Predict the structure.
Amino acid sequence: MITLIYLPINPDFYFYNNVLIFLISFISNTFSAISGGGAGLIQLPALILFGLPYYQALATHKVATVALGLGGSIRNFKHLTNDIYVLWQILFFGTPGVVLGASIVEFISEQYLYLILGFFSIILAIYSFCKPSLGLNSTKYIIKSQLNLKLKFIIPIFFIGILNGSISSGTGLLVTILLIKIFKMDFLRAVSLTFFTVGIFWNAIGAFSLSRIGYIPTNLLVILILGSFTGGYFGAHLSNLKGNKLIKSTFTIVCLLVGVSLLVKSIGSLL
């Protein structure tokens, strides 16, 4: 059960704090809605700076990013109709990983996970930059064998789920690029699917699992939900207007920023 508390804020700064929290949430989730992930690059550290312990900040961030998934999915819902099979594969095989990741987050060393995911994110940025046509066009994928699907998609999606449940940051980017590579989707289709599966279901399950560790402050959460939902919808709207080139460029930049941020965080904690 998710436990909510009210976190007192100095009345003199209440309005300005709320505006600042909303802007942080709106901007980070707008970029996340365009690229398919990376909201935690700004939003999660901001919550920690506001005084929340890591696990409490992570749970609060995950609840808020459900609103991001809803905002983006409402705008991009039409792009999901042809990918129901893939949608169920993500939920069925990735969700156990999310639950596992949220269950073991207290017992694992976060800095090593940051290090691994940081390297992966930078590699994705370089790969996307060096492949000009990546994700710009969508083609129909034919499943040749279930074994091929398991090796190339189901196993990676399970491990991405573990990362999502434990450290959150950047896992939507991994799901997006996996969908592009395995199912030959363009960025708009892949990001739309990531919103619906990772943004709504994975993050909701992760938030529920993490809520046993700490309380979620309601006054911060309400502002974060508003910023996440509006940012998600606005980012998805921009994606539809500008198309795959904008999404690809934003994806590459966000991957690079997420990667550098995670590496700095990892190296800093190891020193």
In short: The chain has one domain: 10-270. The beta strands are 4-5, 216-217. The longest strand covers residues 4-5. The two ends are 37 Å apart (CA to CA).
